[in-house]
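Form P-L/3: holo structure prediction, ligand NAP.
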Amino acid sequence: MATRKTTTTRKTATRSARGTKTTPRAKVKVASARARAAAPTTMLAAAIDKFGPPSAIRTHEIPIPALGPTDVLIALRAADIGSWDAKIRDGSWANKPARFPLVLGTDGAGVVEKVGTGVRRFDVGDEVWAFSYQNPKGGFYGEYVVVDSDNVGRVPKGLGMLEAGTSGAAALTAQQGVDDILALKKGETVLIVGASGAVGTLAIQFAKRHGVRVIATASGRDATKLVRELGADEVIDARRADAVDKLRKLTPKGLDAAFALASGPSIERLLGLVRAGGRIAYPNGVEPPPRKRAKVEVTSFDGTASRKALDKLDRAVTEAKLRVPIEKTYPLARAAEAHERLEEGHVLGHLALRIRGPGRRAA
Ligand SMILES: NC(=O)c1ccc[n+]([C@@H]2O[C@H](COP(=O)([O-])OP(=O)(O)OC[C@H]3O[C@@H](n4cnc5c(N)ncnc54)[C@H](OP(=O)(O)O)[C@@H]3O)[C@@H](O)[C@H]2O)c1
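OUTPUT (holo model):
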C-alpha cells in the first residue's frame, strides 16, 4: 500500500505555528488539514498499458503526479466517460508515442487537496471541476489529478459533484458552440444534430436561454422524450427517410443555424436546409466533418478551458438552470464496463465514473 507523507498546507501550518487568530473557515481548514496529515503518495487509477478494446482498461496503483507552482491537486469524486475517450483508448486519437500506463479521462470534479505555490484562486477544500485534454500530468480516471489552475473552476451552484464531474468538457463545448460560434439570437431556429448525447443534451438548454426555437434530432422514444424534457421544441429522427421533408415543413424559410454533433449522408441532407447567410458549427472530432457550403458559414472548433471560459460557463449554467442527464454511473474499478457501454452507442446524456478516494474506497 501507499507510503504516506504530510501535506499540511503552507497557509494553515503557518497560521497555527504563529498562533494567529483564525476565522471559523480557517479553523475548518486547519482541522481538515490535520485529518489529512497522512496523505497518500500513490493512487488507484483506471489506465491502459497498450491501446485496445475496453478490456485494456485495468486498475493500477501509480504515483500521484508532482505538483507544479501553478497546479492544483484535486481529490476526484467523479470523472467523465467522454465519447472521445474510446478513441484515445483504442489509439486512434492518442498522443504518439504514448506514455504507459496511460490514465484515461479529460475532465472531472472533486475537492482541492493541495495548491501550487503560485496559486491564489483556490484553497484546500474548494469543490471544483476541471477539463484538460491530454493533461500532461495524467487523466481523470483516478483518485487524484494534477492540473493547471487555469483549467479549474468552482463547481457551479446547482450542479452536484457527479453532474459536474461528468459534464465539464461537454458543457464547455456546448456553451461555446451555442454562444460563441453560432451566436444564437432571439427568434432564430437552430437544428441540434445528435441532441440526445453528452454535448447535445446540454446544447439544447444553453440554446433555449437565447429565446430560440430548437429542433433536435433524436432516435427512439427514450431519446425523443429526453430531448423534449430538456427543452427541444420539435424532434425529428435524422435516420428516417422522411426526415428532410419533416424538417422542411417545420422551417419553410430554412434554418438560421445548425449545431452538428454527428455527421453522415442523411445529416448532410438536413444541413442543406440551413438558409443562405446561416451558420453551421461542429466540434472537431465529428467525423466525417460536415462539408463546406456556399453562402453558409461552417465553423469547426474545440471546447477549451481557461479562467475566462470557466467563469462564462458558470454564468451560463446558472442561466440555463442546467440539468445533466446521467444514464449510468460506474465505480472507478469498473471503468472498462463503462467503455463497453460506450461501444454499444445510443448513450442518453452522460456516463459517469464515481470515485470514492483513499480511505473511502470501501464506502
Ligand atoms: N473538439 C472538442 O472540443 C469536442 C468536445 C466534445 C465532443 N466533441 C465531439 O463531438 C461529437 C459529439 O460528442 P458527444 O460526446 O455528444 O457524443 P455522443 O454522446 O456519442 O452523442 C452523439 C449523438 O449523435 C447521434 N448520432 C450519431 N450518429 C448519428 C447518425 N448517423 N444519425 C443521427 N444521429 C447520430 C447520437 O444519437 P444515437 O444515440 O441515436 O446514435 C447521439 O445523440 C463527437 O464527435 C465528439 O468527439 C468534440
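COMMENT: The longest helix spans residues 168-181.
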